[in-house]
Amino acid sequence: MSYFDDVEGPVGVGIPTTRLIGPVLEARLRTKQRPNLTANKLIASDAYKCARAIGLRVLGYPRDVSYTDEDRAAFGAGDFVDTTAKEVFAQQRNAAIDVPFDWGDANLPIGGKADSVYKTTVVGPDREDDTTARVVAEVKSTSPGGYRYQTGGYSAPAHPKVEWVLQAGLAACSPTFDADYIHIVLVDRENLVSAEWLIGVDDPQVWADWDPDEQWTVRQLVESELGRQTDVLMQCDHGTLPAREVPGFGLVLIPPGRDEPKGKPWNCVYCPWQPTCAVLAPEAVPVNDLPVRI
Ligand code: SF4
Questions:
Q1: What is the CATH number of the domain that holds 161?
Q2: Looking at ligand 1, which atom is closest to the CA of residue 271?
Q3: Alpha-carbon separation of residue 256 from 220, 263, 265 (angstroms)
Q4: Cα dihedral sign, 80-45-214-176
Q5: Which residues form the domain of 142?
Q6: Residue 50: CB within 6 Å of ligand 1?
Q7: pLDDT tens, residue by residue, 30-76
Q8: How far is the C-alpha of 282 from the C-alpha of 267, rounded, in Å?
Q9: How many domains does the chain have?
Q10: Is 117 in the pocket of ligand 1 (CB under 6 A)?
């Protein structure tokens, strides 16, 4: 018995009814680029993360700590911003959203998904003609305090975090996109205000939290990060768990716990492998030293 006027056949289990979305879904699945994320042992969202934490993820070592309700609430708020921003990118910039990418190279098994990818016309005094540029956009949300810091509200000048730049850059500079610009959108997830940065991947800039004395292009930052992540992978492949090396911080002698909200580096405070990490030496250790987990 059906109560839907466009459904033929019984509603319930046992016998399939009229296909409501099946034909369109199947056609889309067949024509869309299929993500091949499992082939990529390295992921762009690990950009600028602790070498040991990347190693533990690559090795598939179980997490010690599951997410708290507070973490989940923050993720939920972030997802809301993320989804809404993608809708706006699709409508306002005719962007493709959640586009898979990889480096297409067995020696660089890294990939991920770009939030939004679009084309735009660039005009300006340094351009001979109007040119079409490819842009990869990355959306980030943060607390009001974090937003204020990144937009120049405290003593530091306004700047996007280098990990956001790397994450967008790993997508933009990949052969999948070979893009000209990254577009970072930062949203204060409580006050719902936003700031944006459009950065040419070959334009040298000073990145204060990377190297305050030298100018680096996004592409150069990406090359450095690719080298770091492939080194982590190589260590894991040779039976070594990398040292507790957090970019921008260095070797972590004692990881601060979750009960130390101002602990440094902050990465450890939220690290799901902290209890395991803390019982091992700070330096690289054999993978066999990891406690056996069932
Ligand atoms: S606790 Fe800190 S040092 Fe240890 S794996 Fe996690 S982020 Fe790295």
A1: 3.90.320
A2: 6
A3: 32, 5, 7
A4: negative
A5: 47-289
A6: yes
A7: 777 665 545 568 999 999 999 999 999 999 999 988 877 777 777 77
A8: 15
A9: 1
A10: no
- In a domain? residue 294: no
Residue 38, domain member (yes or no): no
User: Is 145:130 a contact under the CB 8 Å cutoff?
Assistant: no
208 falls within a domain? yes
Q: Does ligand 1 lie within 6 Å of residue 255's CB atom?
A: yes
- Residue 20's pLDDT band, with cuts at 50, 70 and 90, is confident
CB distance 276 to ligand 1 below 6 Å: no
Extract the tokens encoding 66.
């599951």
Non-local CB neighbours of 1 within 8 Å, separated by 6+ positions: 10, 11
Residue nearest to atom 2 of ligand 1 (CA): 268
265-275 pLDDT tens trace: 988 988 999 99
Instruction: Check residues 87 and 27 and name the one with the higher pLDDT.
Output: 87
Residue 161 lies in a domain: yes
- In this prediction, residue 72 carries a pLDDT of 77
**168-182 mean pLDDT:** 96
- Ligand 1 close to Cβ of residue 49 (< 6 A): no
Q: 159 CB less than 6 Å from ligand 1?
A: no
> Measured from the CB, is residue 232 less than 6 Å from ligand 1?
no
Ligand 1 centroid to Cα of residue 270, in Å, is 9
